Amino acid sequence: MYWYQYHLPLPVIDSAKIPLTIRIPGPGASEKSVVDAVRNLMLRHEALRTLYPTDCSGVPFQLVLDRFEDPLPVRRDGDGPEEVEAVFHALFDPPMDQSADLPLRLGFTMENQRVKTLVLLLNHISADGASLSVIRAELERDLGLSSRNAGPRAAAERRQVKVQPSSLARQQESGMRDARNDRALRHCEDVLSSAPAAQFPRFRSTAGAYPHAEAGNRYQRSSLRSSRLLLALRKTDRKSGSSVSSMLSTIFSVAVAALSGNPRVVFRTNFSNRFQELENSVGCFFQEALVSVNPLPDVTIGELMTETEHRTLVGARHAQYSYLRFRDLKARVEAQRGHPIRLGTIINCSSRFKEALQGPGIPTHPAEVRPSSIKRLECLWRDEYTDLCLRSYPKDGEAILDLIGHRTVIGQDQIDRMLTGMERFLMAWADEPDLANTTVTEVVERFRLPVSHYGEGWVHIDHSWVNTSELERLIRTVEGVEAASVRVAERPPREHALVARLVGEPGRQAEVRARILAALREETDLICPHEFEWRDRLLEPGASLPTDIAPGTATASAVHRDSDRRTAGTGDRALTTALLAAVDDAEVDLDLSYAQQGGTAVMAPAVVKHLASLGFAGPTPDDLLGPWPLRAVAELCAPHRESLGR
């Protein structure tokens, strides 16, 4: 997954990065001892000295380095929060090329020439969240800090369970692994086939609006800290036996349904998806599970909890699949449904809750319970592949709810209201068993969760909210279309279809469809109509052409696309050349999608790389894998600045 995501968005060479900070008490440690401890860590764990290049055809492979230079440390005098943050930014900001750079960076703060705070920056392709406890335990042991390690188990005491190569070989030869992968992909296909086109149809990329913006400008983040919530979670856990992850997932799905206005919620989660055999290993082993739940207005919380627990378990059980095959599957489902599927909702619940709720450290006396607080934090995410993300974990006797939202999906005040509403609900659940009989609508109203509504011109079909007014406007930009109306029509026995009724030249239908599909790359509130009907005139009220748009007249965005077409020939030729170089096919049809012509996720970055070698930038692998015709991708091709100067 992170190999593919590394190429998004282009042309920025970057990857997901995760930090680890270790405080060294007392006088600190010598720089040599810290560097030696990090080198020994890298020698023990191959993932921390692995590069991810591609072969001559563009297919990735892992290259484990037996010889490597120690990471060059970033040093900073002083050990205050400002110095630690400065070290972190110095490690985080430079791009990390996964094909050439070691996946570990090292920095530290110093006082009296001794290391006081150690900061590691890890490429996510080589380390997941479960790796951090292993890394921390081993570094603390090597630096003589093991006695203060309060982790659940020291590294030396961890259960040593390893998968033997012979066992893996037998599984592969017997087809067990392939069969498991196929079952997992069938589950993913079921979820994708009924997922909303976008959980939040009002999402809009801010990349164009903020071309030179700082990394955090696209997202807003708040963190709620509550000792009362941790106490309530323990009380509920002991009374009902429901896991913290199920409780949080249930109320989060209610909050997402309210905020998005969509009665179906699909979220990604990556807790409990790591093989037990890899418990003591460092690497990126987790896989995202897809979970689909239905917080319908009249469903009770108890019913939703049961559904959420079941579907989360099923999703986690099927979280063992080839990501690149999954990406190809997603492209096929999108082509069948006539729109892309944006999976931007994430929930992560720490496994540490189980031990925190059973152990000491939870305040019980009223004088020990601290008031809840919400702190607004910086978010350094560079990409825009997430809409809303909830991360939860226990820390220092408090439950932490950390919510990150894209600025076009949720406002800062709505983030705070959502966090407060979820906290109040979970605390009430601990004291009111009858809350399980409350409906989703009653919970949203009682706990004042932020709500979205869709007005005239919007319809809900194919599990998605569609802006039919915008769809009609877009269709009318096609020359030869005199009028357009988009409506939902009933189809027996209990089916519905989105029907576009048009006045004009029926021979323009292919162009109409292509124009809609091309627009879907940026518009998350549109889908391609299931049917097209050409008529002599439209009789429906409100279907007449608005006075500000004459038949066949393009809107501003369409005029821009039409002006691009005057120079589209070079983009067409460049994309065709790149596709022929990367994809083994006899010819390229720009009126078909990339997937329809045998294009795959594993080769999509190679196509983009070939485009770059021809002097063109613009398209990303995701652009290639969408349901739109390749001609729409070719329109994105723009010469590099260096090429324009030649």
Notable features of this structure?
five-stranded mixed beta sheet; 20 strands; 21 helices; four-stranded mixed beta sheet; 646 residues; alpha+beta
Query: What does the largest sheet look like?
Result: 5 strands, mixed
Low-confidence stretches: 148-163, 542-567, 642-646
Net shape = globular
Helix content: 25-40%
Strand content: 15-25%
The overall pLDDT average reads 86
Content-based structural category: alpha+beta
What separation lies between the terminal Cα atoms?
Answer: 37 Å
Q: How many alpha or pi helices?
A: 21
Radius of gyration: 27 Å
**Spatial strand sequence of the major β-sheet:** 10-12-13-7-11
Number of strands: 20
Describe this structure in words.
With 646 residues, the chain is α+β, with helices and mostly antiparallel strands. Helix content is 37%, strand content 18%. It has 21 helices and 20 strands. The strands form seven sheets. It has a five-stranded mixed sheet. The chain has a four-stranded mixed sheet with strand order 1-6-5-4, sandwiched between helices.
